[in-house]
Amino acid sequence: QVQLVESGGGFVQPGGSLRLSCAASGFTFRNYPMTWYRQAPGKEREWVASISSVPDLTNYEDSVKGRFTISRDNALNTLYLQMSSLKPEDTAVYYCNVALPSGNYWGQGTQVTVSS
Fold first, then answer.
1. Which residues 6+ apart lie within 8 Å of 55 measured at CB?
2. Cis before 55 (ω within 30)
3. For residue 9, what pLDDT is reported?
4. What is the DSSP letter of 43?
5. Element (H, E) at 51
6. CA–CA distance, 18 with 84 (Å, rounded to integer)
7. pLDDT averaged over consecutive 10-residue blocks of the chain (116 residues)?
């Protein structure tokens, strides 16, 4: 079955960095675009960044452009989100997502808290 498992979240001070990972299984990872979303307390889940299958074309939500980098390692079936210059407004649960012919799949999320 399809599984997405996020990791790498934590507590960081403003200006700090974190790298999130999403380990994927149960589908041919290299064939599908992958996406990161986030959901802050009391807010709707929002799109953060996407990466295509081949070639690795990327897109970012405006507020994270220049600070976040999405990437993938198809040999390890893993999606990454490198986050730098973090701000308190980046505090959220971060989810990875894949849309397959069989449905739309989500991980359990990883909490990122940015605070001084």
1. none
2. yes
3. 97
4. S
5. strand 46-51
6. 7
7. 97 98 97 97 96 90 98 97 98 98 96 97
